[in-house]
Amino acid sequence: MEGIGIVGAGIAGLHLGLLLRQHDVPVTIYNDRTAEQLAGGRMLNSVAHHHATITRERALGIDDWNDEEYFYYGHHHYLGGGPRPLRFPGFFSAPSRAVDYRLYLPRLLEEFVARGGEFVVRPVQAADVVRLSERHDLVVIASGRGSMSAMFPRRADKSPYDTPQRKLCVGLYEGVAPSEPRGVTMSVAAGQGELLEIPMYAPAGHVTALLFENVPGGELEMLAEISYEDDPAGFEKLVLEKTREHHPATFERIDPARFHLTGPLDLLQGAVLPAVREDYARLPNGRYVIALGDAHTVVDPVIGQGANCASYSAWALGQVILDDPNFDERFCRKVADRRRNHVHATADWTNLMIRTPPPPHLLRLFAAMSENQAVADEFTENFSHPDRQWDILATPERVTSFLARHGMG
Amino acid sequence: MEGIGIVGAGIAGLHLGLLLRQHDVPVTIYNDRTAEQLAGGRMLNSVAHHHATITRERALGIDDWNDEEYFYYGHHHYLGGGPRPLRFPGFFSAPSRAVDYRLYLPRLLEEFVARGGEFVVRPVQAADVVRLSERHDLVVIASGRGSMSAMFPRRADKSPYDTPQRKLCVGLYEGVAPSEPRGVTMSVAAGQGELLEIPMYAPAGHVTALLFENVPGGELEMLAEISYEDDPAGFEKLVLEKTREHHPATFERIDPARFHLTGPLDLLQGAVLPAVREDYARLPNGRYVIALGDAHTVVDPVIGQGANCASYSAWALGQVILDDPNFDERFCRKVADRRRNHVHATADWTNLMIRTPPPPHLLRLFAAMSENQAVADEFTENFSHPDRQWDILATPERVTSFLARHGMG
Ligand SMILES: Cc1cc2nc3c(=O)[nH]c(=O)nc-3n(C[C@H](O)[C@H](O)[C@H](O)COP(=O)(O)OP(=O)(O)OC[C@H]3O[C@@H](n4cnc5c(N)ncnc54)[C@H](O)[C@@H]3O)c2cc1C
Ligand SMILES: Cc1cc2nc3c(=O)[nH]c(=O)nc-3n(C[C@H](O)[C@H](O)[C@H](O)COP(=O)(O)OP(=O)(O)OC[C@H]3O[C@@H](n4cnc5c(N)ncnc54)[C@H](O)[C@@H]3O)c2cc1C
């Protein structure tokens, strides 16, 4: 048997692979695309890593992008769409960083191979998994949102939506001056959706990701549908117009003359259907496979948690592999127990944030954040601690008791 | 609201109460018996605390019984009843201690009250719990094996037995010379049951507990049924005879002339039905109550885990109370997640040990222990770590891989 087999070279598979290589466990990663294809292809996402993830990267010996220029320090909130917009910042205890995955993943893959990991370029089919399970001690499915995740039934109790709640349009742009202090701007246009404006390091250098999260049927939905290729100038003009109308806190830092997409591949349009799936599956031959990352739990990108959660989960799985390498159902249950609170909190929190209309206790919390810096900072810090965020947000009573703790009766 | 209300002043309720008082949380313990009744009554059990529990006691500032005379260092195994008995010791990394609960619990209760805990002597009925739940932020049911535990449904998936698997007879005796080095003797009479011989500190001083765990229908069952009061000398004579015949490793250290029960109350006969119950229940008023200790999970005393597990569980619950004092279903689930592996491992391991006939992989492990001191020591050390013990014992494959790790192909 040849150690651990991982399907998928995303953050889930690579964080797990690097952790296991640090402990000399043999690892093979199977991926349908080469490092060059990952590096040269269409933009994959616009991921920010929060400090809990950066701490894990340091523990893995990933020391790139550590200069001040790559970091940002908090969130600038703009809650508009009503008569009186709310505007306030919130700060992390340690900074976050957003590096384009076309740079990030190939770098991790290079490191994985340099540390003795085996990388096999090959699309794995569901039908191949039994064979892989007989070659490896354990097979981990970390293949993202694609069809392989169907091996793990969707949990209805944790998956409240049957259709995507946002239509996405994310691109990399020049011509947006950074916010001060450098941060992500989270702009909410009530009833229409959100704009996440992210300072990102990409192949074109320091640029700005604009991630429009548009309510289906709303006034910005078309951003997810119109074609850039057909009419680049028309596309950029529409983005500018919608930003001016619905997301003024970002628009005021845009220089329209310089505003443009950094390239035709630096754009992604689509939608994400949130799903929490079972942690593991039993194959016909009696062996178990584990789901990891998006193959296990997909969240809408609105609060930027999917990759951070995939990294957390890779770590949890790696610890159990190192502690107790007996890959039976007891093993799978331990993995599930270990990550459950964090992963479910991530999904529950995200699903709350995309509920339309927003629940009153969320609006109550936002109002309190605008009045009390400590409240805003705790919410912002909890982007590294979704479990703690859900301790605050799970019920209206919890919001009340959180605010009472901050002296807000 | 007046802090935390705990029903039951056993180790579960008292460890939780002392932990919470260290953090100035208001706590009320309700118990149906006074400290004097506990101290002066019939023997409650013959509990040994392993080092993980002793570490928690030190953290709680319980510093009694810390001289060398109270400790013991491992287990002397005697596996008889077949043609060739196996005999071998196993040692802990740190010692265990057995103090009669008629000394132990009143001492903890005294400390609890001295530290500002409230102690109310009163039998609580199931019907009172709603009222208590409106007086306290949280009600914890730590009332032991009694009827209150029926609030928490028994989990069929974790409770394999419908009748007790052993008939118990435990008493405190003079006239048994200690084993060398001081330890618990675990004697197995194949098909008949076990004898646990425990060096115990009791009101009469340093004495020996003999805990006979008798297979129902077997040759020692009558020990659980005959009356001491009717014929003290006849009772002691029968105990001696059965010990000689079935548990020679203990018998050889008995001086029959000095052998006698230390008092009529120093004897307990009966049987324990193992059960794993749900972690929590929702009351008609929407509030939640948590089960703790024997009220949550009862195990047969054969490997002395119930009280140690109750202490672990009290600690886990206490940590969640201190972290996140919002006593809703999320809270209950976090408690359940936190203790599940440890508590279920305790139950699963114990239920394996009382299976008749014993499963072949358990016998394989015993044989290996008799040949390899490191294997015997790891098994013995794991009396403080039931989760690790179950990592070894959960399946025949796990025993094989554990033995392979010790170089035993
Ligand atoms: C627009 C956008 C913005 C986002 N922003 C954030 C953010 O700010 N913060 C955050 O934490 N998360 C964010 N996310 C989510 C994040 O991108 C994902 O959660 C994360 O990348 C998932 O990683 P993964 O390793 O599980 O899967 P993936 O990254 O999808 O990796 C899976 C890999 O497996 C390969 N593969 C798939 N099928 C097969 C097969 N059959 N055989 C072989 N290989 C296969 C794929 O090619 C891919 O390389 C965002 C997502 C989007 C879409
Ligand atoms: C013979 C024997 C040997 C054992 N040996 C060991 C050992 O070596 N190691 C080990 O770890 N465990 C051992 N155990 C198990 C251990 O005794 C129990 O698991 C442990 O004591 C349970 O503690 P508890 O606090 O949950 O319950 P209990 O100790 O039963 O405490 C419950 C308390 O609640 C009170 N109460 C009950 N109902 C009510 C009510 N309605 N209202 C108010 N008060 C109420 C009771 O009077 C009691 O004081 C042994 C058990 C037996 C029987």
From TrEMBL, chains A, B:
It comes from Amycolatopsis rhizosphaerae. One of its GO terms (molecular function) is monooxygenase activity. This is Monooxygenase. Gene3D superfamilies: 3.30.9.40, 6.10.250.650, FAD/NAD(P)-binding domain (3.50.50.60). Keywords: Monooxygenase, Oxidoreductase. Residues 144-253 form the Styrene monooxygenase StyA putative substrate binding domain. NCBIfam families: StyMonoxStyA (NF045732). InterPro entries: FAD-dep_Monooxygenase_BioMet, FAD/NAD-bd_sf, StyA_sbd, StyMonoxStyA.
